[in-house]
């Protein structure tokens, strides 16, 4: 089996990999922002929920989250009267990844928020801005800029974790590789995985490059 | 004519009293210098005036409005901050905004002016402090002195009744202090009512018509610069002034 | 939900817990041993070697660990076979999966740990080094007595994350035939399809193990901080 055939076969799974990657990352970010908001509230219950969720998120293997998501979440939905039997596997993969990493995203945003100098808040309030505007115009943009390098790292973690959706049987790059490996023998198996590894590596480098460009542009604030 | 009157301002934190019944009356055009040892509560005092921190009790009267400081509505809080502006020790320019935008942000979101009006005022203010050529620079690209002058412009742009200065020169390199001091002096000469917390005794003497000595959360003594600085009657003030001048 | 099943399966799952812990701890230790020379080479920028290691780290951090595991699984026996071709008595290589697991984890950990080292090292103020040198300490004493003690508390949080990641990644090695927690859970569940119960049991074990390691390391970090900075 020629090299270019292998690459073509594997790359056919790339669109799905990217789709799952981007969607789950965005949803996980939203979850993370919510968790951060909870952890900043004054009441103990919100803080506790945030802490517990973050602990669960950081102590659970992503593989396990995906398995639970695919096999058990439909049952849970069933209790509420929702029939999820025909929902696409991608949905459960995205849901699993988003929830599994939400704690990490929350920590990321929370630490970026805490890095902002108190006097930024003071100065914004001092010119007569209300709370919503202070957050929208001054704080959140700064939080985002501070968080960018970590967002880059997390994004790449999502890329690597996306390979785990094989366990739900989704056709992405990794799944294509294992399928191919199962019908090949001997040295080809090694070759397939090395090619797969290099493909992931190249994609990682591309994203790293793009992120670095963006970070450089945004570095005056 | 009394512009600002503060009565019985009290503030505690974690069972410690930080401000112990502070009373102050300011007339239009007054420049009040607040001096005193570190930790005496000077900064907290300023922050309690524009409600960045919330007093336990006290009243504040400004421009025909009297506020009970223990229960200020959000509306009144926002109103107050449009009339009392602040300049910070570490400049506190919005890091994600250009010099120009630092000034317009307060005008647009605080005073609800439209973009054109805000832009016009911002340009004038920048001209006043000779920083118009740096208007599209970000704070990280400016020196401390330049940042502080923009900080002052940000405050004056609001056309406030009173400006509070929290140790405006403490974070500056010595050679930059002069320009900022001159700017503040010019404001004073133009009749701006100000309360200035400062370490620089000579600066206090130069611009202020009234000096307050703050210690342990209260005003120990108040009077003219001659009374407080040149001929201090109180031992503690004497000691403080000696310690400060030894550094020169 | 079959709670009985959950209770009965717990001890059976716990019986393979040592495998999980062994794999991740040995992996991280070997990774640490590898990471130190790698970090030194990269810091000193030794020509050629530093570039090679830069690529090495980029590879191990850019490829999903499941793929790394398979590459080692297929590649290591082959590599050893190639290296041993001169040895006439060499049989074909069937390696115990455990060794493959440890190698894969060690290599992966070495890349991450090396980066963690670098960041902890740069987190120590350079002026500390300068001050030590200027009062007459030799370079090696400075490192031993001034830089490294300050570096370690910086290093521990990242080390904790890497170790916890390894523990969670052990969930993948049943693919190459090692029976650890996930593998055992799948086996137990397959008899009467009690997947939810088995997975929940596994989840609890992972959470507890991660929590224990994280707490211990945090205590260690505080103790060292006290000892160094107190």
From TrEMBL, chain B:
Residue span(s) of domain ABC transporter: 4-241
Main location: membrane
Family matches, as InterPro entries: AAA+_ATPase, ABC_ATPase_HisP-typ, ABC_transporter-like_ATP-bd, ABC_transporter-like_CS, MetN_ABC_transporter-like, P-loop_NTPase
Membrane topology: Peripheral membrane protein
Keyword RNA-binding among record annotations: no
Any one GO MF annotation of this record: ATP binding
Keyword annotations: ATP-binding, Cell membrane, Membrane, Nucleotide-binding, Transport
Pfam families: ABC_tran (PF00005)
Localization: Cell membrane
Name of this chain's protein: Amino acid ABC transporter ATP-binding protein
Native species: Apilactobacillus nanyangensis
Lineage: Bacteria, Bacillati, Bacillota, Bacilli, Lactobacillales
Automatic annotation (TrEMBL), chain C:
Keyword Transmembrane assigned: yes
NCBIfam families: HEQRo_perm_3TM
Domain ABC transmembrane type-1 stretches: 17-217
Family designation: Belongs to the binding-protein-dependent transport system permease family.
Subcellular locations according to the entry: Cell membrane
Stated name of the protein: Amino acid ABC transporter permease
Main location (coarse class): membrane
TM spans (from-to): 20-41, 53-73, 93-111, 172-193, 199-220
Membrane topology: Multi-pass membrane protein
Cited SUPFAM superfamilies: MetI-like
Key words of the record: Amino-acid transport, Cell membrane, Membrane, Transmembrane, Transmembrane helix, Transport
Signal sequence range: none
Name of one Pfam family that matches: BPD_transp_1
């Amino acid at each position: 089996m020629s090299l270019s055939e292998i690459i073509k076969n594997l790359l056919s799974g790339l669109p799905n990999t990217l789709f799952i990657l981007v969607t789950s990352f965005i949803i996980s970010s939203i979850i993370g922002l919510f968790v951060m908001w909870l952890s900043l509230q004054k009441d103990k219950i919100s803080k506790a929920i945030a802490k517990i969720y973050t602990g669960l998120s950081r102590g659970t293997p992503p593989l396990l989250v995906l398995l639970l998501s695919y096999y058990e979440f439909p049952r849970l939905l069933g209790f509420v009267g929702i029939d999820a039997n025909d929902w696409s596997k991608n949905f459960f993969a995205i849901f699993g990844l988003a929830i599994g990493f939400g704690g990490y995203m929350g920590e990321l945003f929370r630490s970026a928020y805490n890095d902002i100098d108190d006097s930024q808040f003071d100065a914004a309030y001092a010119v007569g801005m209300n709370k919503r505007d202070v957050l929208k115009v001054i704080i959140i943009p700064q939080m985002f800029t501070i968080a960018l390098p970590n967002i880059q790292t997390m994004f790449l973690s999502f890329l690597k974790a996306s390979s785990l959706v094989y366990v739900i049987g989704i056709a992405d790059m990794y799944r294509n590789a294992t399928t191919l490996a199962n019908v090949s023998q001997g040295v080809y198996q090694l070759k397939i995985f090395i090619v797969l590894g290099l493909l992931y590596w190249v994609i990682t480098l591309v994203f790293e490059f793009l992120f670095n460009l963006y970070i450089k542009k945004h570095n005056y604030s | 004519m009394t512009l600002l009157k503060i009565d019985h301002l009290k503030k505690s934190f974690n069972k410690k009293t930080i401000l112990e019944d502070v009373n102050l009356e300011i007339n239009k055009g007054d420049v009040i210098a607040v001096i005193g040892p570190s930790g005496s509560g000077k900064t907290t005092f300023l922050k309690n005036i524009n409600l960045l921190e919330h007093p336990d009790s006290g009243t504040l009267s400004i421009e025909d409005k009297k506020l009970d400081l223990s229960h200020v509505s959000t509306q009144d809080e926002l109103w107050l901050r449009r009339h009392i502006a602040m300049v910070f020790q570490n400049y506190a320019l919005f890091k994600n905004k250009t010099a120009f935008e630092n000034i317009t942000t307060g005008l647009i979101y605080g005073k609800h002016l439209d973009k054109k009006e805000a832009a016009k005022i911002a340009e004038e203010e920048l001209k006043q402090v000779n920083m118009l050529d740096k208007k599209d620079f970000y704070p990280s690209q400016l020196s401390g002195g330049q940042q502080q002058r923009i900080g002052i412009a940000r405050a004056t742009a609001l056309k406030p009744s009173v400006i509070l200065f929290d140790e405006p020169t403490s974070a500056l390199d010595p050679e930059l202090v002069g320009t900022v001091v001159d700017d503040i002096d010019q404001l004073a000469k133009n009749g701006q009512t100000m309360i200035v917390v400062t370490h620089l005794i000579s600066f206090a003497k130069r611009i202020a018509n009234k000096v307050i000595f703050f210690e342990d959360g209260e005003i120990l003594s108040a009077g003219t610069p001659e009374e407080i600085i040149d001929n201090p009657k109180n031992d503690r003030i004497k000691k403080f002034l000696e310690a400060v001048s030894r550094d020169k | 939900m079959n709670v009985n099943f959950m209770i009965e399966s717990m001890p059976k799952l716990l019986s393979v817990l040592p495998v999980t812990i062994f794999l991740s701890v040995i992996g991280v230790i070997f990774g640490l041993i590898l990471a130190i020379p790698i970090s030194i080479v990269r810091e000193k920028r030794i020509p050629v070697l530093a570039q090679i290691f830069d690529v090495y780290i980029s590879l191990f951090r850019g490829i999903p660990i499941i793929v790394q595991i398979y590459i080692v699984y297929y590649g290591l026996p082959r590599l050893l076979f190639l290296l041993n071709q001169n040895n006439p008595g060499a049989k074909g290589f069937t390696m115990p999966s455990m060794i493959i697991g440890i190698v894969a984890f060690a290599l992966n950990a070495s890349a991450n740990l090396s980066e963690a080292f670098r960041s902890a090292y740069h987190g120590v103020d350079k002026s500390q080094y300068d001050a030590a040198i200027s009062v007459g300490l030799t370079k090696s004493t400075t490192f031993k007595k001034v830089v490294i003690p300050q570096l370690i508390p910086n290093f521990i949080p990242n080390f904790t994350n890497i170790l916890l990641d390894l523990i969670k990644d052990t969930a993948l090695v049943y693919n190459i035939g090692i029976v650890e927690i996930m593998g055992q859970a799948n086996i137990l569940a397959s008899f009467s399809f009690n997947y939810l119960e088995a997975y929940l049991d596994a989840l609890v074990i992972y959470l507890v193990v991660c929590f224990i390691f994280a707490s211990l390391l945090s205590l260690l970090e505080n103790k060292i901080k006290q000892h160094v900075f107190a």
